[in-house]
Amino acid sequence: MIDHKEKDSKLKSFIREYRPEIKFVLTFSIGLVIGFLLIHNETVGEKVIEPITVVETYIASQVLNVIGFPNEQSGLYISGIEGNTFRMQVLNTCNGVYESVIFLMAFIAIQVPWRRKIGWMTFGFLFFHFVNELRLVSLFIVGTKYSTETFVFFHETFWNYAVVIVALGTFIFCANQVSKSPVAQVPVQEGAGA
Amino acid sequence: MKKSEFYARIPLIKRRLFTRGLPAAAVFLTLWYLGGYHLWGYLLDALLFPVNIDYDPLSTLRASLLYGVEMGGRTYYPSYLINQFNSNMVMLVTLLATWPHESARDFFKVSGWCLFYLLLYQFLSIFIQLHHAAIGPDLANRAGVFWEETNWYLFMRKLAAFDKFIMRFFFWIPIYMASLVTIYFMGKSKREAS
């Protein structure tokens, strides 16, 4: 009986102490599921996600052309030209969309006024996609210049790990910047989950 | 740990990510790839014991884990690239090395709970992937069974995709949080009992 009461009070005090964090986790989780269902919808995939991926492929292709790796882009493919036989397809998991949804949902879940967080949220989102472009460009360079094993290592291990760290690091940095802003200080102390 | 203590540790955590977390991840990945199945086989067997694992020890970077599962009179082979499989593990290693633990005992306690929740996640992941395959059109068509899409199948298909695109890379966060929360409750109850 005492144990039950103790547990009950512990749970209550935990909920009271960590109420903003619990609210953050719940908002984030629900938002993540909704966001995922949205981007995993076939129509959204065709009309929104694929065009975004094509634009990302196009930008990577243009950058590669500028830095001395001539190539041709066709849809989701980047193919080397002038003797370069390497060909790369940008798939759904390489476009950074899933990581972006995680980043955006985490930012939405922070309990800070929108006018304060929208700027850093946009900055973080753009920065993450800049890093993802670096990923695409670097993978084409590695695929062109080095062995298949090296490409697989960078594609499957290095960048998988780096993208998770960058997404999380960008979120923590941007959330920290938001919490530093004087107007946001009171609500953030109460509740930023970051 | 009190909430104030938790937030007071954030600057230290940021510093330790670079001094301990990333080097620990690099060591883990080096051992993972150099060690191959001879070193990690026991862990992989433990994490995936509901299914038979077929692993190519000669290949390192491109090695896949294959589950040989009998379903509908045929053998089904869902596969993981090793580096996708270890995404949650390597992030947990990073976090365990980064997080400032009060003592070595505390460190091992958190590690133990992380391993426990990681096991639970692997079971869940295997169940989702295999059940999704078992009730899906591919297996039914191959077995020549009349098959109709059900709501349960649609739900499982979304869940399997959620596991493949998000949980496989980001489930280490809830695993670590669950470990800390478990210790929070267990630790407090001991103190109060004494």
Helix content of chain B: over 70%
User: Which parts of chain A are unreliable, with pLDDT below 50 for 5 consecutive residues or more?
Assistant: 184-194
| Biggest β-sheet description of chain B | 4 strands, antiparallel
Structural class of chain B: alpha+beta
Q: How many β-strands of chain A, per DSSP?
A: 3
Low-confidence region ranges of chain B: 57-62
What is the number of helices of chain A?
7
Helix and strand element order of chain A: HHHEEEHHHH
Q: How many helix segments of chain B?
A: 8
Choose one word for the global shape of chain B: elongated
Gyration radius of chain B (Cα, Å) is 20 Å
CA(first)-CA(last) distance of chain B: 18 Å
Largest sheet of chain A: 3 strands, antiparallel
Instruction: Name the pair of protein chains with the most residues at their interface, and give those residue counts.
Output: A-B, 28 and 30 residues
Proportion of beta-strand residues of chain B:
5-15%
β-strand amount of chain A = 5-15%
Q: Helix/strand-derived class of chain A?
A: mainly alpha
Question: How would you portray this structure in words?
Answer:
The complex is a heterodimer of chains A (194) and B (194). Chain A is mainly alpha-helical. Chain A is 76% helix and 6% strand. Chain A has helices at residues 2-17, 19-39, 42-66, 97-109, 114-145, 148-180, 185-191, and strands at residues 71-74, 77-80, 87-89. In chain A, a hairpin with a 6-residue loop joins strand 2 and strand 3. The longest helix of chain A has 33 residues, at 148-180. Residues 184-194 of chain A have low confidence and may be disordered. In chain B, 72% of the residues lie in helices and 9% in strands. Chain B has 8 helices and 4 strands. In chain B, strands 1, 2, 3 and 4 form a 4-stranded antiparallel sheet that branches. In chain B, strand 2 (64-71) and strand 3 (74-76) form a beta hairpin. In chain B, helix 5 (104-134) runs antiparallel to helix 7 (151-170). The A-B interface holds A 3, 6-7, 10-11, 14, 17-18, 25, 32-33, 36-37, 40, 92-93, 98, 102, 149, 152-153, 156-157, 160-161, 164-165, 172 and B 2-3, 14, 22, 25, 29, 60-62, 81, 83-84, 87, 90-91, 94, 158, 161-162, 165-166, 169-170, 177, 181, 184-185, 188-189, 192.
